[in-house]
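Minutes, structural biology subgroup

Action item carried over from last meeting: produce the structure token record for 3-Beta-hydroxysteroid-delta(8), delta(7)-isomerase (Paramuricea clavata). EB confirmed the sequence was re-checked against the source entry. Recorded below for completeness.
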Amino acid sequence: MENFKSILDYFLVDMADPINLTPVGLLLLCFIWSGLPRGPEKYIAIWTLFNACFIHIWMEGIVGVLGRGPRWMVIEYSKLDARYAEKDPTVMTIVCAEVFIMGPLCILWYNAIMKRLWYKPFLAIVTSTIQLFGAVIYVFTEVFLGFKNLPKLHSWPPSFTVWDDVFYFWIVFVFGNM
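Output recorded by EB:
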């Protein structure tokens, strides 16, 4: 029971911080402005809005750079990639682009999907291209640095038999940057 309480405490510390309402507030504003996801492109719209509100603005900007939000997320972000804690210039540049360009672009793309605006395909191409470029720079910078900012792996190449290697390298670093 004590172990369960310590796990619960780890995940619930700082949950009362109002900054944690940022993604929910953004979602509500987008729903008011553009409407709820519907129609044939409903799932693309949901993914686009999730990217804007949760990934680009909240996780990358607020949790990753500002170090605010649920304490466990801030701790894990620094553990997953030391470049966040060190405020590496390349990562900070990519994050600024995600927060100030990608987040708003995804919201505009969501609006274009919901209102079937003529520039929807243009926003899809621009947003996807910027996302791909950022991911390539982010990943290859770490590759050229010899993966020194990732958590210490048990073996190289990372195995599929050790949980830390599977989670931190294959799931978070490889899959999370696709």
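Discussion: Residues 44 and 113 are 8 Å apart (CA to CA).
Next step: EB to file the record with the rest of the batch.
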